[in-house]
Amino acid sequence: MSFEAPHLLPTPVRSPASPLLRVEGLTRHFMVSGERIDVLHDCTFDVARGEVVAIIGQSGSGKSTLLNVLGLLDRPSGGSYVFDGVDTTGLREGSRSRLRGDGIGFVFQQFHLLERRTALSNVGVPMVLSGVPLLRRRARAKELLESVGLGHRLHSQPHQLSGGEQQRVALARALSRDPALILADEPTGALDAASSTMIMDQLIEQARDHDAAVVVVTHDPKVAERADRIVELVEGRTR
Ligand SMILES: Nc1ncnc2c1ncn2[C@@H]1O[C@H](COP(=O)(O)OP(=O)(O)OP(=O)(O)O)[C@@H](O)[C@H]1O
Ligand SMILES: [Mg+2]
Q1: What angle do CA 4, 20, 184 make, to 5 degrees?
Q2: Residue nearest to atom 18 of ligand 1 (CA)
Q3: Staple 62 to which of 39, 167, 169, 175, CB 3.0 to 4.6 Å?
Q4: Ligand 2 centroid to 155 CA: how many Å?
Q5: d(CA 163, CA 141)
């Protein structure tokens, strides 16, 4: 693992008109048993602050792969990815994880909640990493859980919650540090219509009121139609 001093993060190049993120000619392939699998061929699009973009496409079309690159969890094989004025392509791991921790919230297909922790504690985890004191952390976690309709489940552990409730805890956790970018992979996949509407309300509110960019992968036409814009992935290409 490499460590870098904070000043080594490149100076962001921002202008009022520049989008929060831009990918250009992005490609990603994997090697499996010596064979090359091309998943993303040519992805080009941008997302502005305050905007909600839905990514749609068939199963296996590369949506989660693309989201992992946008979340700086994975590196592209080619092309460029500029996030918040920083070209991430050549960045070392330390700088990437700092950008990720400070600016990106995730709601994954799997919820990745900590099993032996309560909902309140799970939502507080990202704030522990950024040094928010305990009382403030708990107050903020409680407020977020109430906003996703889980004010009555603050002390439940993941195994005591339904799939949809766990998904809502994951959303509250993603919002806890007020990230500039929220990446959500099928956030409403496990939910009934009412909870699904609530999750989308939250994501849209985060974009409008907190000036965040939201990228949401979905198979649900009702979710996609609430987005400001739809990016479709077809055979690894955006359109
Ligand atoms: N680490 C990996 N190694 C090899 N192949 C991979 C890897 N990750 C993904 N793939 C392949 O890339 C393709 C796209 O996967 P991805 O998970 O991005 O699809 P998706 O569009 O999110 O599908 P779904 O809607 O089912 O979630 C799949 O065919 C998958 O097998
Ligand atoms: Mg996927």
Answers
A1: 90
A2: 62
A3: 39
A4: 30
A5: 19
- Pocket of ligand 1 contains residue 110 by CB under 6 Å: no
Average pLDDT by stretches of 10, the chain with 239 residues: 57 79 97 96 96 96 95 96 94 93 86 92 91 95 94 97 90 93 89 85 93 95 94 93
pTM of the model: 0.90
CA distance to 1, 109, 182, per residue, from 207 (Å): 34, 21, 9
Name residues whose C-beta falls within 8 Å of residue 44's C-beta, 6 or more positions apart in sequence.
23, 24, 25, 26, 238
Say whether domain 19-238 belongs to CATH 3.40.50.300. yes
Distance of CA 102 to the CA centre of its chain: 12
Domain residue ranges in the chain: 19-238
